Amino acid sequence: MTIERRLARAGFTLARDYPVPLERVWDAFAEEDQKLAWWGAGDAIEPGEWAFDFRVGGRDVAEGKFHEGPVSRYEATYTDIVEHVRIVTTYDMWLDGIHMSTSVASLEFEPIDKVTRFTHIEHGVFFDQFWADGPNREGGTRGLLESLGNYLA
Asked: pTM to 2 decimals?
């Protein structure tokens, strides 16, 4: 079987207002026990390898097997962290051991009245057979932000 070599690019912006103090939203990303409580939460994934190193240059790994399905692997490097303001990562995704994409994601935290506005902006490059996966990535990120909202509630 020959793999068609091609690239696709996709980007999206998602914003959510969480009715909690900014520090609470920030800590959900910055503290390992809190991130574990919502990141990939739910019973759809059997957890695998996990690493958490929240500092510039630090690396996160989250791997899990979808029940009756593929193994997903996320490896991120923190490239910029400004406490209570922003987190910037570059990250790679694999599906069943095949490198599917590389992305840059910026996470912004802004206090507005009695809510925290959280903005996730992402730009990704998708490889070969995963070239059309951009909409799925946005959908998966929406799911993560929903899990975060449920955790914060």
From this structure: 0.90
How distant, in Å, are the alpha carbons of 22, 35, 87, 150 from that of 113? Answer: 11, 25, 22, 21
- Can you read off the two tokens belonging to residue 68? 């009756």
- pLDDT tens digits along 22-71: 999 999 999 999 999 998 655 567 778 999 999 999 999 999 887 778 89
Task: Return d(Cα 42, Cα 144) in angstroms, integer.
Answer: 10
- Our count of domains for the chain comes to 1
Q: Which domain holds residue 130?
A: 7-152
Cα-Cα-Cα-Cα dihedral sign, residues 103, 46, 132, 139: negative
DSSP-based three-state secondary structure for 20: coil
- CATH number assigned to the domain comprising residue 110: 3.30.530.20
Nearest-angstrom CA–CA distance, 49 and 51? 7
